[in-house]
From TrEMBL:
One of its GO terms (molecular function) is glycosyltransferase activity. This is Glycosyltransferase, family 11. It comes from Helicobacter pylori HP260AFii. PANTHER family: GALACTOSIDE 2-L-FUCOSYLTRANSFERASE, L-FUCOSYLTRANSFERASE. InterPro entries: Glyco_trans_11. The lineage of its organism: Bacteria, Pseudomonadati, Campylobacterota, Epsilonproteobacteria, Campylobacterales.
Length: 167
């Protein structure tokens, strides 16, 4: 998909096309969305073990997968270890580039979503009838049935500072 019109934002548009080319050149692209931002302050971010379990599950089903990690926290992704190599697609300006990230995620063949309707929609819009989508079993406010029935649910918990809580 083309990037949305954004005035004289030539540099960001070129970056979008570079990232899109990387994804489209990959036969088995998988996006991983990690939501931090406001979730960190209120204790709603998923524990990293959820993403690791999801990556492990996906690796067994998608041969030669290539991971593309989307997150709004550059510092977090610089130290991220998912147990599998990945391309960091983290944007520096989350507000301006959020819609571009949505388009990039939906350009992947498969997805690992956060407890976020943002990545839920990106996964839902993937145009691949064989797509595998993995989501967290636990969501905020008890929304346990938010995932599509064919999507895979992985056990998850929320992290609050150094403590872990089941949703």
């Amino acid at each position: 998909p083309p990037p949305p019109e954004n005035g004289n934002n030539k540099k960001k548009e070129e970056e979008y096309h570079r990232k899109l080319s990387l994804i489209l050149a990959t036969k088995n692209s998988v996006f991983v969305h990690i939501r931090r931002g406001d979730y960190v302050g209120i204790g709603c971010q998923l524990g990293i073990d959820y993403q690791k379990k999801a990556v492990e599950y996906m690796a067994k089903r998608v041969p030669n997968m290539e991971l593309f990690v989307f997150c709004e926290d550059l510092k977090f992704t610089q130290n991220l270890d998912l147990g599998y190599p990945f391309m960091d697609m983290t944007t520096r300006d989350k507000d301006e580039e959020a819609y571009w990230d949505m388009l990039l995620m939906q350009s992947c063949q498969h997805g690992i979503i956060a407890n976020s309707t943002y990545s839920w929609w990106a996964a839902y819009l993937i145009n691949n009838p064989e797509k595998i989508i993995i989501g967290p079993k636990h969501w905020l406010f008890g929304y346990e049935n938010i995932l599509c029935k064919e999507w895979v649910k992985i056990e998850s918990h929320f992290e609050v500072k150094s403590q872990k809580y089941n949703a």
